[in-house]
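Hi F.,

I've been meaning to write this up properly since the lab meeting, where we talked about keeping a consistent format for the predictions we share between groups. The idea is simple: the sequence comes first, exactly as it goes in, then the structure tokens exactly as they come out, then a line or two of notes. No screenshots and no reformatting. I'm using this chain as the first example so we have something concrete to point to.
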Amino acid sequence: MKMKIFSRPTFLITLHLIYLITIPRVYSSLPLPLYAPELFLECLDTQPADPGSRNSRVAVIPTNPSFSTNLMRAVRNLRFASGSTRKPEAIVAAVTETHIRATISCCKQLNLELKVRSGGHDYEGFSYTSPVPFVILDMYNFHKVDINLKDETAWIQSGASLGELYYNIAKKSKVHAFPAGVCPKVGAGGHFSGGGFGNLLRKYGLSIDHIIDAQIMDADGKVYRDRRSMGEDVFWAIRGGGGGSYGVILAWKLKLVRVPENVTVFKLERTVEEGVIDLVHKWQQVAPVIDKDLFIRLEIKPVYRSTTSKYKTKTINVSFIGMFLGSPERLLNIMNKRFPELYLTEPDCMVKKWIDSVVFWAEYPENEPLENLLERTSVNESYWKRTSDFVQTPISKRGIAKIFQTMIYHSPLPRRVWMQWNPWGGRMAEIASDETPFTHRAGNVFMIEHFMNWYAPGDELEEAFLAISRSFKKAMTPFVSKNPREAFLNYRDVDIGITIPGYNATFEEAKVYGEKYFKGNYLRLFQVKAGFDPTNFFRSQQGIPVLE
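Output, unedited:
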């Protein structure tokens, strides 16, 4: 009998399938052979492909000269660009759904974790790092935006940026917008699946409150073209529950919102010496209950005090940054009645088209082409840590003073801890906490985003600044939500808890972060996950588990 000779791809894949013969039904992490990148490429070309094209043409592996460029294109946090950070076995820059399906299939066959990256803004790098062998599915080429003003909707693919969305809306209309973040380079896929909030929050709520349909591919490569086919439970889960725990989000259908042709923005700065403690205290009482058309963010930063002395001393500077859906005259009327202490005046008010207010909030140069909003890559320039908190009881003046003193103590200028305080109320207080997985609705006064930046590499330096960040957040414990200490999924934070590599966490083990992100909605997310992705193929260190 003639011996059958296997081709190299068939031989390698057969060999590895024998190697993985004892894999349990729920995925776990096993060591991979040293040739895993090549094996993955060869596997791609055994999968169904588009006519006249090989799947592997859209993939790069570490030996490819363009690998580093493809990896770093969306690495926003240089903490995850060090030599010690584990690199992917391959990066697939999918162009068609066929490429996504092939990537999923080969990751399943070779027991590789799949990381889906839309914009790369994941605060803990979950979309492009892992402690176990993994592949990045880069959605960069899935960035089509289709605006339909007839029914005031838009379809946006998950690799598109918010800037692309805003630009395309403005090209079609001067009186339409979408409630989402102020950073134009953020990818729609992750932003929307985590909730998505911005300066239209008090008027219109979150991004997910205006998502009316979606398309998703599951772990078997099946595409669900609308919410009816995927089921309302899955559609509920991916809007704020982290779409990456369920499948690959291909596109979202949005309901656009109306805005005036002209809006008003302002930015005022005050220091402790100018009475800012009293102003911040008053802001807590006013900002969450004032007219829904008005959003006033606080940026709180330690700075050096202006002085003629040769000795530098520190103080706190607070920026009051406002977005108002109306004229300066109506804004001033509201502020003079509700918040006269801020002394907002007509010269402080800047009238802009909505799209120009996007440029203002993004801190882009004014009077430059709006096409700047289409730029999706960033210059990687800093190392950082971000976290979140929710405040449910206004902080006393004494408490505010203590927070400011603690910030100064924790800020070795020019490096510093700083915060943004974002007022809740308005529409956010009107939507039930279980309407979507995003549970942080009524009962919250404002949300805090904590910042710590530094600009040089080194493990010791990183540990020092992470220690400062964690120490300051610990000092904030008396002032924020409790049991659980709530956190915002879009601002991922490994310090609130993770599952160990292998990711076959149980419901109870994942509670450590699940209840902080989702509170009572965590149970329903777990139940949806068990039905839609029962093998836990879409997994991460803060994913939704399937095991009881």
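Notes:
The chain has 16 helices and 18 strands.
Residues 429 and 442 are 4 Å apart (CA to CA).

If this format works for you, I'll send the rest the same way.

G.
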